[in-house]
Amino acid sequence: MKSFEFEGRSLDFGCGDGLFSFIRAGGRFRAEFDAFQKTEQLDRFYENADVYDAYDESFDPLVTMPASYQISVGFDHKANLLRKAAALGFYKETVQGDGNGPLPFGDDSFKSIFSNIVYWLDNPISVLTELRRILEPGGAICLMLPNDTLPEYSFYNSLYVETKDERWKWLELLDRGRLSDNIKQSKSDEDWRENFARAGLVVLHHSQHLPKTIIQTWDIGFRPMFPALMKMVDGVDREKMPGIKAEWLNALKMFATPLAAMGATNDERSAFHCYVLSK
């Protein structure tokens, strides 16, 4: 995203809780902040319940450094996540709506648009056409989109969906609907460019990131242990939490830093594209 900046009236399309864009803009938090401080339905975690879609008035992001810029509009379909996003003071306004339908914005409304959700939606050409409609002439859209290699790197998809081998059915518990329900569109660069052309968009920049090794590490991560970890966190003395978190992070960095460096080669087999587009 280094070649993309939020300029003029801007839109974060599918902003969620806003944390990704806030941190990218230089925002920082106190060590006591926990993005998972409010969750629900942990008993239904393995039934694919969205345990993070929760909010109460005690939510406080504990911001220590505001972002270096603001985004005009944060758009998402989940009201609870928008409430969290609004608490950051990063979005000038938040708007709830369905990205699958006509967007509640006029023609030529935004100079810059960012999104990491187009591949979650039902019809990418329809979505891209709507994004083009609300983009002003000379503006830019930055999109993160899966490559057609992503399903190949998924343990759930390659070992169970493709083979139908019942020995791997348990991988449904690992996927929890991510690939089957959320990542609906995984395409090659050529196919994405065809979709852009059909929507009336041109490519200004293209790069790729997240190679196979990183994707397969992310595919497992700590996710299966999440309910148990949350119960452990609840039992930790609040005053001791910052020190424990620092210890976790220092240990994780020993592995995460060299692992992340493996994704710096812009390999065409990497699992995600980054595009900057214009009319």
Tell me what you see in this structure.
It is a single chain. It contains eleven helices and nine strands. It is an alpha/beta fold and 279 residues long. The strands form two sheets. It has a seven-stranded mixed beta sheet, sandwiched between helices. A two-stranded antiparallel sheet has the order 2-3. The longest helix is centred in the C-terminal third of the chain and has 21 residues, at 241-261. The mean pLDDT is 92.
Indicate the topology:
Layout: E1 10-13, H1 19-24, E2 28-29, E3 63-65, E4 71-76, H2 79-86, E5 91-96, E6 110-115, H3 124-134, E7 135-146, H4 150-153, H5 155-161, H6 171-175, H7 178-182, H8 189-199, E8 202-209, H9 212-220, H10 226-234, H11 241-261, E9 272-278
Parallel strand pairs: 1-4, 1-6, 4-5, 6-7
Antiparallel strand pairs: 2-3, 7-9, 8-9
InterPro entries: Methyltransf_11, SAM-dependent_MTases_sf
Protein name: Methyltransferase type 11 domain-containing protein
Pfam families: Methyltransf_11
Brief summary:
With 279 residues, this protein is an alpha/beta fold. The chain has helices at 19-24, 79-86, 124-134, 150-153, 155-161, 171-175, 178-182, 189-199, 212-220, 226-234, 241-261, and strands at 10-13, 28-29, 63-65, 71-76, 91-96, 110-115, 135-146, 202-209, 272-278. The chain has 11 helices and 9 strands.
